Amino acid sequence: MRQAAIIGIGHSRFGRRTDVNLGELAFESIREAVQDAGVEKKQIENVTLGSAGGWYEESLPAVVVNEYAGFERVGTMRVEAACASGSAAVRSAYLSVASGEAEIALAVGLEKMTEVDTLTSVELMGRAGSYLWEFENFGMTFPAYYALYAVAHMKRFGTTEEDMARVAVKAHRYASMNPLAQFQKEITIQKALASQVVSWPLKLYDSCPITDGSAAVVIASEDVARRLSDTPIWIKGIGVSSDSANLSRRDDYVGLAATVDASRKAYSLARTTPRELDVATCHDCFTIAEIMAYEDLGFCAKGEGPRLLRDGQTEIGGSIPVNVDGGLKAKGHPVGATGVSMMVEVSKQLRGEAGKRQVQIKNGTGLVHNVGGTGHYCYVTILSRDR
Amino acid sequence: MRQAAIIGIGHSRFGRRTDVNLGELAFESIREAVQDAGVEKKQIENVTLGSAGGWYEESLPAVVVNEYAGFERVGTMRVEAACASGSAAVRSAYLSVASGEAEIALAVGLEKMTEVDTLTSVELMGRAGSYLWEFENFGMTFPAYYALYAVAHMKRFGTTEEDMARVAVKAHRYASMNPLAQFQKEITIQKALASQVVSWPLKLYDSCPITDGSAAVVIASEDVARRLSDTPIWIKGIGVSSDSANLSRRDDYVGLAATVDASRKAYSLARTTPRELDVATCHDCFTIAEIMAYEDLGFCAKGEGPRLLRDGQTEIGGSIPVNVDGGLKAKGHPVGATGVSMMVEVSKQLRGEAGKRQVQIKNGTGLVHNVGGTGHYCYVTILSRDR
Question: Which helix (DSSP H) or strand (DSSP E) does residue B279 occupy?
């Protein structure tokens, strides 16, 4: 494969964005990414939009985005991998460059979820579970799915509600340092524990919010990256896996098999190991998901996630800082934008441009973990400062 | 780029498929394509599903398909480029192989449109136009969009309703020779002209039907293709373009600029010209669309489409046989499946396996033209018997 690197990053403000329409919201990050890359818009050879859709009325968001951003005659498509749509878009742009089809390609992640009310949103997402069986028959939605995992993890490993609350407290602390995050206020463990139960043991503060937002990355070939960028962030490997939508068919409920599989593939492609990572973004749609991700990605042994967290190892200064941008939990989770937002954050960290949230970069390697559904899809991407 | 070839093709019966669910419908073509390729399912490294969605209740069709087909832990995603989603899926699988990511990848096209009633379907498609302006304000749906083009073409070039009816008669004739086609009966020009007006000058027989169906292709690297296949069909070039969703912003209404642009890109990549093509499938969602495609793809000069048709040049035995599988018009148009179905047909023709519909193969080159919306997206793919 040809080498390819992220040479431009852009990120909208996340939150309730009634001030912009779909095209405008996407353009906030596209403009920034294209400027950051130092390219002209006309040099972008193709665009991939990651968006799950269903919330907004336009049924061809890729066309809306291309038109608003002024990509006339530029080839485009939308990709969907549920909440991992953003990573799938990055993979598509990467393959275009890695194959030699394009020298410069753009991946955009976008979702505008507050176009519908929260209950409709929860239903729309719930339908992405096992629609005909678990959703229709048992009324399962995503808080309930992840609650099953939380209960199993508690029973098997003694994980507590307080452990989960710690994930939320960490997320809000870093979000308060990220001006683009949806939530800007710190919370306490007490506040998290006292919040409304959504699906026991998961409470309001265990759950990511409904968010509008976009993020974009410009991906270039080695020749272009070396010419245009002083800080190219190389895509070293993308591992992808999938799993049954029917939770009744899963082997256990203490981790996501798709994460284990996708991360093994990614580490192998990138010829690296969890120990060499300086920073990671993990798919914390619910707090238990972040704890399971530590284990499934190999940051610690199975069942040791809560201890890793309690020891502060996933904070800035720890062995593997995770979601120091606020994560899905507090930065927000505009479904299709999330994976691209993660790429932006890890790129920023590896470039050393994360300001007061900057982690220490030793090996120059970072990881993006992006899950669709309850591990129906999983995309793991390894990024590196070094070619 | 690495070379890549289609080494396996599969195609479900098109029509009203209330006898199967979404997974079963996809599996009909997946099983056939995998068997045709002579590979084991476990050799498939990734799956891309082309499906526009919105008709069926499952919101993650790629997951449903992967699970039903038994692709455990295999990476997947869904791609959407409206009615060109199938070609976009083929491009994704192609890039995976051409980049070196995979040796063998699968592209599946799928749509199950009869899950909703016809009016809902027409509305769902209409929303894919210019949603906030032309759909909401003027009630434009796709028959109306293409009717604007038909009227402009009639006024500028003297094209007649009878010319358009000829496209339908040709489509039904070839569909009657294709056991997988939705319509199995020939029609006459008189019958087409006497059919109900949908949006003048387009009538019932100028319009493609609502269809359920799937198609699949297995794409392999040169090494694998040479080892496993006696008849690999090489992907020589994929050109992609886009256009404004607002018809009010188009330059004219006698052709699709995205088709002209995408085909130029494809011819250039494949180093070929329209003259060297032995066969083509064109996006005939309405009869006028096939006539415009002849011109936009360079099969004849602008305005000469009706004459090319009248002279029988786009029939078997003519200079460039088009849609001899029945086309969208009579084979049917299950949105996401259509582009993949076109790849299956052109591959079959280039292999010399099209039976009584076989065209004469001289140069061994064919073209797939797949449009999304009214040229919002356009994908043109050149296939060849020769590496």
Answer: strand B279-281
Q: How far separated are the first and last CA of chain A, in Å rounded?
A: 13
CATH of the domain at A84: 3.40.47.10
Q: Which of residues 64-103 of B touch A (CB under 8 A)?
A: 64, 66-67, 71-82, 85, 88, 91-92, 95-96, 98-101
Q: Are the Cβ atoms of A257 and B1 closer than 8 angstroms?
A: no
Burial A352-382 (b: 16+ CB within 10 A, else e): eebeebbbebeebbbbbbbbbbbbbbbbbbb
**How would you class A190 by CB atoms within 10 Å of its CB: exposed for 0-12, middle for 13-18, buried for 19 or more?**
exposed
Which chain B positions have a beta carbon within 8 Å of A63's beta carbon? 82, 242, 245, 372-373, 376-377
Shortest distance, CA A134 to any CA of chain B (angstroms): 12
pLDDT digits (tens, 9 = 90+) for B240-264: 999 998 888 899 999 999 999 999 9
Q: Which of A76, A246, A261 sits opposite B377 (nearest CB)?
A: A76
The pLDDT, as a whole number, for residue A137 is 79
More confidently predicted of B56 and A375 = A375
Nearest to A100 among B1, B128, B257 (CB): B1
Looking at the predicted structure, is the pLDDT value of residue B25 above 80? yes
Q: Is residue A176 part of a domain?
A: no
- pLDDT over 80 (residue B130): no
Q: What is the pTM of this model?
A: 0.98
- Taking only the tens place, the pLDDT of each residue in A25-36 is 999 999 999 999
Q: How many domains does chain B have?
A: 1
Query: Under an 8 A CB cutoff, do A63 and B99 touch?
Result: no
Looking at the DSSP bridge assignments, the partners of residue B99 are: none
Q: Kindly identify which residue of chain B lies nearest to residue A379, measuring between CA atoms.
A: B75
Residue B371 counted as domain residue: no
User: Is residue B302 in some structural domain?
Assistant: no
Average pLDDT over residues B75-98: 98
B286-334 pLDDT per residue, tens: 999 999 999 999 999 999 999 999 999 999 999 999 999 999 999 999 9
In chain B, positions 256-295, which contact chain A (CB-CB < 8 Å)? Answer: 257-258, 261-262
Size of interface A-B (CB pairs under 8 A): 169
Residue in A closest to B4 by C-alpha: A99
B51 is a domain residue: yes
Contact B90, A84 (CB under 8 A): no
Domain span at residue B108 reads: 4-117+210-228
- Which residue in A57, A65, A80 has the most chain B C-beta atoms within 10 A of its own C-beta, making it the best mutation to test that interface? A80
What is the helix (H) or strand (E) element at residue B105, kind and residue range? strand B104-112
